[in-house]
Amino acid sequence: MKIQKALHRVRVHDGLDYRYWFLWSGKRDALGQYFTGATIKHMPSQKLKEVLIDKPPFEIQKRTADILSAYGNLIENDQKQIKLLEEAAQRLYKEWLVVNDIPEGWEWPNLGDVTSVLRRGVSPKYDNSGKYLVISQKCIHQSIMDINEVRRESNEYAPELNMQDKDTVICSTGTGTLGRVGQVFGVYPDTTFDSHVTLVRTERYSNFFYQAIKHQKDFLMGMERGSTNQQELYRGVIEGLQLLISPQETLNKAENMLSEIHDKITTLNPQMGLLVEVRDRLLPKLMSGEIEV
After folding, report:
1. Domain 109-243 carries which CATH code?
2. Could you report the per-residue pLDDT of 7-35, keeping only the tens digit for each?
3. What are the phi and psi torsion angles at 5 (to 5°)?
4. C-alpha closest to that of 65 among 31, 30, 21, 96
5. Which residues pair with 135 in a beta bridge?
6. Can you give the pTM of this predicted structure?
7. Residue-range domain boundaries for the chain
8. For residues 170 and 183, what is the distance between their CA atoms, to the nearest angstrom?
9. What confidence tens digit (pLDDT) does each residue in 182-194 have?
10. Helix, strand, coil distribution of the chain in percent, nearest 5
11. 49: how many CB neighbours lie within 10 A of its CB?
């Protein structure tokens, strides 16, 4: 098997638990000081050889890795459950509401006709001591908004721009993330979003509309406009997105089922976030010896 030039392969010897090396190398700034380059960071082979690592007795390495790996297993289990729930929601939407021939009584409204809020966010002046949290494109991974990537600011914003449970968020600027669709799971006081994100909010059927928008993410990803470095997904494109809507009885049943899935993910997501937070706090303390194992 060939190794890409952008990668280094590290094989630990018998005196180092490979899980411990993996955990240590993942610590914040553990390897950062060894990277070079202004625009594109890289680590030459010689620099990698110069990396100094903490190497406590093997038994301490093993116990440290056991503790942190247990958290990792719980986090992975939550991630798998969330993924399965997301897949179930997508299957439900496709089976119930994606049809080749439009039945009688079904409609094709534009997204702009069914939303109560559809707009870009604020242009923040970031302040680490600020009261308010600001969501950026980095916070939108696959389906779930990730609060761990959030930043702070002090400026107040319009009440309607505060994130609400079941809101849909769409990455709307830049290459790589443009057109990515996510949803808000849970309540986030004092939390808004920046101008690179479009908020979509409906008064009813929020989970249905989220799935309908996500179903057309490939279309959205192909609707970028502007130069290579500043591509935009314009509001008019999102407003004009056509959605197939079934009669109310079918729509109500689908929304109820999708809401059950949403609520399960809403329970799992903060639980997983708490596990990540505890693990990340334990990591430096365990590996520095501040907490004995």
Report:
1. 3.90.220.20
2. 767 666 666 666 766 566 655 556 666 77
3. -65, -25
4. 21
5. 193
6. 0.80
7. 109-243
8. 9
9. 999 999 999 999 9
10. 45, 15, 40
11. 9
